[in-house]
TrEMBL record:
It comes from Riccia fluitans. It is found in: Cytoplasm. Keywords: ATP-binding, Cytoplasm, Helicase, Hydrolase, Nucleotide-binding, RNA-binding. This is RNA helicase. It comes from the Eukaryota.
């Protein structure tokens, strides 16, 4: 308020008792301000200008009485003492009846201790169904869906007029801990808004679908804590649980004394029954247990019942006194479960019953009958409509999407797979949820963003750009989605669909692992749409996804192309058709070869032999290769180098036309035949630019098209700043575009590449030279597709194109609705390719989907910081372990069977010689056999050994028919076509039963008595022979045999009370060759089957055994007899001889039951090994990546990212923040403070080494930046040495060179200082597009380093990185 003539301010802060203020000064208008009443009304009253100050004027008009009595120091002290210092009790609030608490205690220990029921694990809740799914139900449905979580039955008939009656399902009750911030549940508390899209490393990832928390609970829950056994142990005096989960040590509370109680058994029984009546036992557990018990095989059930009855014999006696109520209840439950099971099985179809017995089928590849005719009835209210009729596979996919089911669509390029992705976007928009479209390369993401922006609310997230991340439909690269899943971004809660485009990219060696990680980490509520080209194992891959996510995947697709393709060879200005309607035409190849022959054969006589001299053979790099040529017509060098060649090799036409002239000829030919536009695939960025620049005299656009191109380019390039508008690349590409020629590869600026894509889609570009990424990235078919060559560089070496890659690129030929046929041209620069190579490429099978899963340090650290997830769980669910995990149920069954068989074989062996030593004998035999594998091949291949194997030579053999080393004699040596040696060996085992056919053949081989008599044989009586047979055939003199063997191998018999066997023995089955020899008659043994001859041979062997009672006959000396020169072989031979000598000294060696006992022990050991192997295969140690995992764990422990208990440390948390470079190098760089002495420009320049991924020339650096480079390089070498030390296949220097590329350090440094982009491009040979991508990715890298500094807790470092980011944005 102002008063006076000059506007003087008046302060309105009078004493509380004053109600008026009078002001007056000379030259001013006096006035008086006052307040009236308790409400504080303000009034102003002018006063006389000539009044004089008096004592009366200072008095207020009204003085009110004080509201409170006056305060004195004594009164204040008394009030404080009474209120705060004097204790007192309130008679009403502090009474004993209100404050006290009493407990009922049974002083005599005979009471029943009641337990409060635990929180229920399951509950029955209504199932909400959207209104658009309730309508148009006119038929009666009866669906009994039974699984672990759902039991629902609907029997009433519904119509649009009937009220909607919800169904019910049984769900798990969410515990209160699942709503905590560190929970993996989707119901947890949301994080800050800044982390909504990309998440934070402090968040827990959401629980992936298909994971069971009960399987991972043993990691952090003590053993026995889930079933209450640890409580009983403590009451009985067991140890206490002193170390909490996650802690390294706990409190030493000592050993508690056993708790003595006097509960009566009757009371305990009543207590258990009351708990069961209360329903604390989960229904799903009871049902699952009853279901599994009903499926146990009969033998297993009997064995388990027997073991249970024996183990609980005492308990059965105690329970016999209990009332029969419990048994009646169990019987009732059993009847209920059996009734439910019978009802469910009766409702299944025969195929479903068979699947229920075999196991759940997760991939479904069945055509919906009548989908084309009944589609409008099955899907009455579509989320979006299309201006064309959908194909059958598209209708099937839409039908499954409406049913909230995941689909796998496999079809050729340009067949219409994108329609399924669009419909998933429409469903997400309709349901007010989100959908994510993932792609392997950024080109696809950019093109889909442009296509979908007109139809949906779309945002894009890639490594280069981030636009509208809050949109309902997001397009992103697979790496971005993986980061969101690991960091628990809250946006994942809203995702309903994830569309995986180009799923066959999972075969990529470098980035295929990202697809598997994303599929495994997706939460349960997310459905998947998988789009892929045709691959042979579609069903197998879908089955893996279904088993991993525990949901069915419906496979659909088509093998029909919307536009048929014709494949041709282009040679010397003509097209030769070699494939049409997927049928290879050899005649076209022959015609092209004939044309080539006419061109290349010289007209001068006598020059035919050198027609192909000078031509490069094979497929040169990028289609320009060379090599030594082959003479004649076989010297094929498709893609061979062209240029100056000798005239003698070109048919007298002088030098071969240059590549430029061939391009002119090819383009003019296509223009004449109306085959434009054409996409020419060149597998090199430099080749694309050179080919486009060579067509300087070609102009393919009209005046209106030139005007359209100019306006579009001017509008697009106007976004560039200053001198960037006149960059050489921009000027060159713009000039090419005006003439209808374009280039498309990764070296272009992003804006230039986008302009080329959009102009090609508009149809004004007639000839486009592109790399392979265009076939995957841009949905823009052309009339013709041409291949410059068949060779490409896959990042490691040059190789031929695969059939799947060729099919992917060739599929861009043919525009649906415009062309009746698409043309694919193979350019033949110098020679015609081989027919076999063409046939393989055009008609070969596509490459199967194979797992490229590998462990990374980032993956390990992200999983170790989460208690609910384990790295082993990720390894088990990878596609590489799919077949092993699918076989686990069968292996578990095998383990049970073999353990049961092993328990039956554990009976003691009854030895007739006293204490059995068969185990020692078996161990010696196994060791001797192991040494024999390394020695016997060399010994038997020696000339001395082959010469020693003559008839009559005593040998020791071990064959499948004679499983123990047994003495034998050589009957026939190997000769001619008979490579095996025939041996007569002792057989102290059971003779196998010979089939009747074999027996007849053996008896039939003997000569008739009449024929024998005619040949000079006579018959002697039994008493003269001492044999078991009644008669035997003998001969008086030896004769030469005919060579016909009349016994069937193996031939068993008995002579002199000992069994024998005649068999063919291979070299590997000889144990040793003895020095001893005996007399045998091969003719009588093999041709006559004379029992006397067999008896004589066996008797000689038995006499030889008696001569060497505790040892085998002496064997040939390796040096003197066998002439072996290898000292190592000789040493092993002598060691094995010592083992054989110990075996001969064993009392089991000559035991009649040796073979029987040996086979028993061998089978027992084989079963033990098989059981051990099955247990190993069922364990985590059998995983393929487990050795690599252990090695990487050791590396992380050494660098300090984790401790000995696998707990992630501070350095490990920092490493989790780094995604755009090598996490270990970046973390060591931060903790070593290597960037502290660098300014912002130098810091950003050095970080470019982590982002840049190409080879480039060495930069020129300042001394300070060069020193920082050396420090970082030394860190990388040290980390490589650590990895190599722990067994990883890493070379330290190669690791440092592969992870750190310093080619753009100078360029980024100059850019950060503000140097124009046109100037910095002159500093390197790296394309402009690669420079821009590196600079854009540096922004994300700096942001990751800033978050890492925040986790490290260094404010100075955090401020420095914030300053770097601010300066980077300003630049």
């Amino acid at each position: 308020m102002s008063g006076g003539v000059q506007g003087r301010s008046v302060s309105a802060s009078p004493p509380i008792s004053q109600l008026g203020i009078e002001t007056r000064r000379g030259g001013e208008l006096p006035f008086k301000v006052g307040w009236t009443g308790y409400s504080g009304h303000l009034w102003v009253e002018p006063t006389s200008s000539c009044c004089e100050k008096s004592s009366l004027s200072e008095l207020p008009d009204l003085i009110l009485p004080p509201a409170f009595p006056p305060e004195t120091p004594d009164s204040i002290r008394r009030r404080i003492e009474n209120e705060y210092l004097s204790p007192s009790l309130d008679d009403e609030l502090d009474s004993a009846s209100n404050c006290g608490k009493s407990w009922d205690f049974d002083w005599y220990g005979e009471g029943i201790r009641r337990l409060d029921p635990s929180q229920p694990q399951v509950a029955v809740v209504p199932v909400y169904e959207p209104p658009f799914r309730r309508a148009n139900r006119k038929e009666t449905k009866r669906n009994v869906l039974l699984d672990r979580t759902q039991l629902r039955e609907t029997t009433q008939e519904e119509s649009p007029k009937d009220p909607w009656i919800p169904g019910y399902e049984q769900v798990e009750v969410i515990q209160s801990a699942e709503g905590a911030h560190n929970s993996s549940s989707v119901l947890r508390k949301p994080g800050p808004p800044d982390h909504f899209v990309k998440g934070s490393s402090g968040n827990q990832p959401f629980l992936p679908g298909g994971f069971d928390l009960s399987q991972t609970s043993e990691r952090y829950v003590p053993e026995g804590a889930l079933n209450g056994e640890w409580v009983a142990e403590i009451l009985q005096g067991g140890p206490l649980q002193t170390v909490p989960p996650g802690f390294k040590r706990g409190l030493d509370l000592g050993t508690p004394e056993p708790f003595s109680h006097g509960f009566r058994e009757e009371a305990r029984a009543v207590d258990v029954s009351s708990i069961q009546d209360a329903g604390s036992v989960p229904f799903n557990d009871l049902f699952r247990k009853a279901w599994e018990e009903s499926e146990v095989p009969e033998e297993t059930y009997e064995a388990s019942s027997f073991s249970i009855s024996v183990a609980h014999e005492d308990e059965q006696e105690e329970k016999s006194a209990e009332p029969p109520g419990g048994q009646e209840q169990d019987q009732v439950l059993e009847n209920i479960f059996s009734d439910i099971k019978e009802e469910i099985l009766s409702s299944l179809q025969p195929e479903e019953k068979r699947d229920a017995k075999k196991g759940e089928v997760w991939a479904v590849m069945e055509t919906i009958p009548g989908i084309a005719e009944k589609f409008s009835e099955l899907v009455p209210d579509m989320a979006m409509t299309f201006p064309f009729e959908l194909d059958a596979f598209q209708k099937e996919a839409v039908y499954h999407l409406e049913r909230n089911e995941s689909v796998f669509v496999a079809a050729h390029t340009s067949a219409g797979k994108t329609v399924v992705a669009e419909y998933a976007f429409a469903l997400a928009t309709k349901h007010c949820t989100r959908a994510v479209y993932t792609s392997p390369i950024k080109t696809i993401s950019n093109q889909k963003f442009r296509d979908f922006s007109d139809k949906f609310d779309v945002g894009i997230l890639t490594g280069d750009v981030s636009l509208r991340p809050e949109a309902s439909c997001l397009i992103m690269t697979t790496e971005i989605l993986r980061s969101m899943l690991y960091k628990g971004a809250d946006i994942v809660r809203d995702i309903e669909w994830v569309i995986f485009d180009e799923v066959h990219y999972v075969n990529d060696v470098e980035r295929g692992v990202v697809w598997e990680e994303v599929i495994i980490m997706l939460p349960e509520h997310v459905n998947m749409v998988l789009l892929s080209a045709t691959v042979p194992n579609t069903f197998e891959f879908a089955d893996w996804i279904g088993r991993t996510k525990k949901k069915k995947i419906f496979v659909t697709g088509t093998m029909r192309r919307p536009v048929p393709l014709e494949h041709c060879l282009y040679y010397s200005g003509e097209l030769y058709k070699i494939c049409s309607m997927e049928t290879f035409l050899p005649l076209g190849v022959k015609e092209a070869r004939d044309a080539h022959h006419v061109k290349t054969v010289p007209k001068v006589s006598g020059g035919g032999g050198g027609a192909a001299q000078g031509r490069g053979a094979g497929y040169g790099a990028h289609g320009r290769g060379g090599g030594a040529g082959r003479s004649g017509h076989g010297g094929k060098s498709f893609g061979g180098k062209v240029g100056n060649q000798s005239g003698s090799g070109r048919g007298g036409n002088g030098a071969w036309r240059s590549e430029t002239s061939q391009w002119y000829s090819f383009v003019n030919y296509l223009l004449k035949k109306a085959l434009l536009p054409v996409v020419v695939f060149c597998f090199s960025k430099a080749r694309c630019d050179q080919s486009a620049d060579s067509l300087t005299a070609i102009d393919l656009t009209t005046g209106s098209e030139k005007s359209q191109i100019k306006i579009f380019c001017d509008t697009a390039f106007s976004r560039l700043k200053g001198s960037d508008r006149r960059l050489p690349q921009v000027v060159r590409v713009e000039d090419l575009l005006r003439r209808g020629i374009g280039v498309h590869h990764a070296g272009l600026l992003p804006i230039v590449k986008e302009v080329v894509e959009m102009l090609f889609c508009r149809g004004v570009i007639k000839v486009l030279f592109s790399t392979e990424t265009f076939a995957m990235g841009v949905n823009a078919p052309a009339r013709t597709v041409a291949f410059h060559s068949f060779r490409k560089h896959d990042g490691k070496s040059f190789r031929q194109l695969l059939p799947g890659e060729y099919t992917q690129m060739a599929g861009r030929a043919g525009r649906r609705g415009l062309d009746k046929v698409g043309t694919v041209v193979v350019m033949c620069w110098d020679d015609i390719p081989e027919e076999g190579d063409l046939r393989r490429l055009l008609t070969g099978k596509p490459t199967k989907l194979e797992s490229q899963f590998r462990l990374t340090y980032s993956m390990i650290l992200n999983l170790l910081r989460v208690e609910e997830l384990k790295v082993e769980d990720m390894l088990k669910r990878s596609f590489a372990e799919f077949h092993a995990q699918r076989a686990l149920p069968e292996q578990q069954q095998q383990l049970l069977e073999r353990e049961g068989a092993l328990s039956k074989m554990n009976a003691t062996i009854d030895c007739i010689l006293g204490e059995p030593t068969i185990e020692e004998y078996y161990a010696l035999a196994i060791e001797a056999e192991r040494l024999g594998e390394a020695v016997q091949e060399t010994v038997m291949q020696s000339r001395a050994a082959q010469q020693a194997l003559t008839p009559g030579r005593v040998v020791i053999v071990k064959t499948p028919q004679v499983p123990v080393p047994s003495m034998g004699v050589v009957v026939r040596s190997p000769a001619g076509s008979n490579k095996a040696t025939v041996v007569l060996a002792l057989h102290r085992g059971a003779v196998p039963i010979i089939p009747p056919s074999s027996a007849s053949n053996s008896t039939g081989s003997a000569l008739s008595t009449k024929k024998l008599a005619e040949e000079g044989y006579f018959i002697s009586r039994k008493e003269n022979r001492g044999l078991d047979d009644e008669y035997s055939v003998s001969t008086g003199s030896s004769r030469k045999g005919s060579g016909t063997v009349r016994v069937t191998f193996p031939h068993y018999g008995t002579a002199a009370g000992v069994g024998y066997v005649v068999l063919e023995v291979e070299n590997k089955n000889f144990v040793s060759i003895s020095k001893a020899k005996i007399k045998v008659d091969p003719v009588r043994l093999l041709e006559d089957v004379n029992v006397t001859a067999y008896s004589a041979a066996i008797q000689q062997l038995l006499l030889l055994e008696q001569e060497h009672k505790d040892e085998d006959p002496p064997t040939l000396d390796p040096l003197k007899d066998l002439k072996l020169n290898d000292l190592e072989i000789v040493e092993k031979y002598r060691t094995r001889s010592v083992l054989l000598s110990k075996m001969a000294q064993n009392k089991c060696h000559r035991c009649p039951k040796l073979q029987e006992h040996y086979v028993t022990v061998k089978n027992q050991h084989l079963l033990q090994e098989r059981v051990k192997q099955l247990k190993f295969e069922l364990s985590d140690a059998a995983l393929q990546q487990m050795p690599d995992f252990q090695q990487r764990i050791e590396v992380l422990q050494e660098v300090g990212c984790i401790d000995a208990d696998l707990v992630v440390q501070l350095k490990g948390r920092v490493a989790c923040e780094i995604n755009s470079g090598d996490e270990l190098i970046a973390t060591e760089c931060l903790f070593d403070n290597q960037l502290d002495d660098l300014d912002p420009a130098e810091t950003v320049a050095l970080l470019s080494a982590l982002v840049f991924q190409q080879d480039a020339s060495e930069p020129l650096l300042s001394p300070q930046l060069a020193a920082a480079k050396e420090r970082l390089y030394a860190t990388a070498v040290r980390l490589g040495e650590i990895q190599a030390h722990h067994g990883l296949p890493v070379n330290a220097v190669d690791f440092a060179r592969a992870t750190l590329r310093f080619g753009l350090v100078e360029v980024v440094y100059e850019w950060a200082k503000g140097t124009p982009f046109a100037d910095i491009c002159e500093l390197t040979d790296v394309p402009e597009g690669s420079i821009v991508r590196t600079i854009v990715r540096l922004d994300e890298t700096c942001r990751e380093f800033k978050n890492a500094a925040r986790i490290m807790g260094t404010p100075r470092c955090l401020k420095r990185w914030k300053r770097h980011l601010r300066q980077l944005k300003e630049t």
